[in-house]
Amino acid sequence: MIKINHISKSFGDKVILNNISGEFEKGKTNLIIGSSGTGKSVLLKCIVGLLQPDEGNVFFDFRNFTEADKEMKSEVRREIGMLFQGGALFDSKNVEQNVMFPLDILTKMPLNEKLDRVNFCLQRVGLENVNKKMPSEISGGMKKRVGIARAIVNNPNYLFCDEPNSGLDPQTSIVIDDLIQEITHEFNITTVVVTHDMNSVMGIGENILFLYKGKKLWEGTKDNIMNSGMKEFDDFVFTNKAMRNLRERAV
Amino acid sequence: MKEFGKYVMFLGSLFVRRETFATYYKLTLEECIQIGVKSASLVALVSFFMGAVTTVQTAYNMVSPLIPRFVISQVVREMTLLELAPTIIAVIYAGKVGSSMAGGLGTMRITEQIDALEVMGINSTSYLVLPKIVASVLMYPLLVILAGVCGLVGGYLVGTLTGAVTPTEFVYGLRYNYNPYVITFALTKSIVFAFLISSISSFKGYYTQGGALEVGISSTAAVTTSVIAVLLSDYFLAQLLL
């Protein structure tokens, strides 16, 4: 479980996050949603420690990550897997080396065990016979899968995904979403996904946190998304025609 | 001054939260091949022609019959070892290796590869930059030695083939009044230049923000700043050590 307490972050005079609190539950896909520029990615970066919040704390299973010393931060980070927007695969390494990288750095596993683990993770994300390919030789969707394989290779307790569907076709997006949800349930991980894709929200949104202009305006699940009673939230959700049709049918 | 302070802090961050020695050993070897071995042919070619041109021009300007011909190779020796090999090759090194370092790190920054390392709990400056600086400091003096040898060979071949100087005169000139301290000075300079080029280029690349355009700007800034730093340090080292 991850808990965020009163997180605020500004860049110069511009307030990006304003007093945001919330909880991300274990074994569920927790979504941070909102329009572009509302601070979703900044919040994610504050949670994983890529940015230091101006105020507030982040707790990973009751461990205060924000105020932790370097050793504890390092310990928590070893339990984190992250899928970046563009995959963030290392250009100079092939697929196998990319997935193996966290094991090389963070463990003392023998090579054959590492290879077994890498092959298991690649198979788990539906990739076979791509071990020796370079990132430039595979498609965007495959890069995302390799990114997921790398994120889960070290058995993380926490999985973070920054806009996992960006740049993907709708069909591949659904495959990636399903994969994230399956992995979350299968390995009982606390997963946090940043997205503004309503298909993802309706597909895998087990716990949803809605940001609007740097503030948390709404929290709920995909089941009570239709009756939030909040104009800003409805404006975001029902911009999509399919969502409007869905609401009309529900009414 | 703010930029300089940031640079000093960047250098300080290279030595905290380091990985295992084996990790650095492997990365440094890879960088040595990338930086040193792959630059050797260019350095050899450039220095060969620098030596050749220096010989031709020195011979052209020595018109007095009172000056012995072996002075040509003496001048070539001093120019090559003192300035051409360490300093001019440093400018070429900044253009080839420095821009490549800045471009590589800049691309890693904008594609979130550096963030990926940080999320894994790896000190990205130490992991990515320290091997580059160590490899540079190890390999650049070797490149300078190669440049010195190739420069003198170029001078010898062109000088003797054009008849500007006989082989015996050229070798005599090379050995005449030779001061071994010149080599110490050239190698000291090369270590300082290697450190400056690799650290400044890495610094510029590491802090790239934006997109592909900014990566190009970082690469250009890396080369220009490195070359200015090299030339300034060249002057101060000459004042200090000669």
What do we call the CATH topology of chain A? Answer: Rossmann fold
Q: What sort of overall outline of chain B do the alpha carbons produce when their principal axes are compared?
A: elongated
Mean residue pLDDT of chain A: 88
Structural class of chain B comes to mainly alpha
Question: Which tags fit this structure?
Answer:
heterodimer, A: 251 residues, alpha/beta, Rossmann fold, 4-stranded antiparallel sheet, 9 helices, B: 242 residues, mainly alpha
Summarize the structure in short.
Chain A is an alpha/beta fold. Helix content of chain A is about 40%, strand content about 25%. In chain A, α6 (about 170-185) packs parallel to α7 (about 200-205).
Overview of the molecule:
The complex is a heterodimer of chains A (251) and B (242). Chain A has 251 residues and is an alpha/beta fold. Chain A is built from 9 helices and 10 strands. In chain A, helix 3 (95-106) packs parallel to helix 5 and helix 5 packs parallel to helix 6. Chain B has one domain (21-241). In chain B, helix 2 (21-61) packs antiparallel against helix 3 and helix 3 (70-110) packs across helix 6. Chain B is elongated and about 70 Å long. The interface between A and B is medium-sized, with 24 and 15 residues.
Give me the secondary-structure topology.
The complex is a heterodimer of chains A (251) and B (242).
Chain A: E1 2-11, E2 14-24, E3 29-33, H1 40-48, E4 55-60, E5 63-64, H2 70-77, E6 80-83, H3 95-106, H4 111-124, H5 140-152, E7 158-162, H6 170-187, E8 190-195, H7 198-204, E9 207-212, E10 215-220, H8 231-237, H9 241-250
Parallel strand pairs in A: 3-8, 3-9, 6-7, 7-8
Antiparallel strand pairs in A: 1-2, 1-4, 4-5, 9-10
Chain B: H1 2-13, H2 21-61, H3 70-110, H4 113-119, H5 124-161, H6 167-175, H7 181-206, H8 212-241
Helix pairs in contact in B: 2-3, 2-5, 3-5, 3-6, 3-7, 3-8, 5-7, 7-8
